[in-house]
Amino acid sequence: MTDSIELEAPPSLPKVFARAVASSRGRNGKGPLPDLQVVRRGVAIDPSQLADYDHVCGFTLRDEVPSTYLHNLVFPLQVSLFADKRYPYPLVGSVHLDNTLTQHRPVLIGEQLDLSTHATNARPHKRGVQVDVVSRAHVGDELVWEGLATYLYRGQRIDGNLPERPQELRGPREVSERDTSGELRGVQDEAPDGPGMVWRLPGNLGRRFAAVSGDVNPIHMNSVTAKAMGFPTTIVHGMWSQARMLGAIENRLPAAYRAEMSFRKAVLIPGTVRLVARERPGAWQLALRENRRSTVLVRGEVSPIS
């Protein structure tokens, strides 16, 4: 039978982060994922907090809530799950690999939400163990939103076969580049390229997004901590990248859609990036690229659902 942690109010994320980090050393990945969900009911959207988030992420002010903001609301539940002593993997050194958001219909300011989060599908990865964290938002009995975040726990081990590596087409040449773990890899990538929107990212972007999201992971705010974790400097939150990319095509999004993002390389700040968006039959193909070298940082696809 599934155990539940019921949150009456949003937790203090700095305190929960500190607890999860402090207990990371004792988490060795042994044992299965707990049959545990974290729940918070009757969540109201604060219009002023939403407005601050929209400003940082490039969304327009409107009655419809961006799908990425709903990830903001479930993120405290995710961190509470990671901090629970039954969760076997350490927060320190974890990497957000992929994030898929499914908006079944627009959520409006004024609607109250019941939120839940649980972890599932621990499986091998060539650099450790990857786990899916599933989050859902209901209005009454109606499922209105789902999130699937895949995290990599580097250096952990689990029984099972490694998945086959897909062939990724980048274009006319194959390149070698460093992935978010700092290791060299040869990749080909089918992400769109060409002219696009150029964004100059300021050095304080991580702190600004932390203020509106609650994600106070120091690799996004402090270059010393980022370097200690293997990055050359401070890096942007993956969820800022996904939000900013969706915000750029906000007026072209259908009412119900699935937005899949793969975080390929760390987005360093300060820096300059380019969003390339191409409308294909039935979907938008997106790529966030380092502007000068055109390296793919984030690969995305947005498709309508019925």
TrEMBL record:
<dbReference type="InterPro" id="IPR002539">
    <property type="entry name" value="MaoC-like_dom"/>
</dbReference>
<dbReference type="Pfam" id="PF01575">
    <property type="entry name" value="MaoC_dehydratas"/>
</dbReference>
<dbReference type="GO" id="GO:0004312">
    <property type="term" value="F:fatty acid synthase activity"/>
</dbReference>
<comment type="similarity">
    <text>Belongs to the enoyl-CoA hydratase/isomerase family.</text>
</comment>
<dbReference type="InterPro" id="IPR003965">
    <property type="entry name" value="Fatty_acid_synthase"/>
</dbReference>
<feature type="domain" description="MaoC-like">
    <location>
        <begin position="207"/>
        <end position="277"/>
    </location>
</feature>
<feature type="region of interest" description="Disordered">
    <location>
        <begin position="162"/>
        <end position="196"/>
    </location>
</feature>
<dbReference type="GO" id="GO:0005835">
    <property type="term" value="C:fatty acid synthase complex"/>
</dbReference>
<feature type="compositionally biased region" description="Basic and acidic residues">
    <location>
        <begin position="165"/>
        <end position="188"/>
    </location>
</feature>
<protein>
    <submittedName>
        <fullName>Acyl dehydratase</fullName>
    </submittedName>
</protein>
<dbReference type="GO" id="GO:0006633">
    <property type="term" value="P:fatty acid biosynthetic process"/>
</dbReference>
<dbReference type="InterPro" id="IPR029069">
    <property type="entry name" value="HotDog_dom_sf"/>
</dbReference>
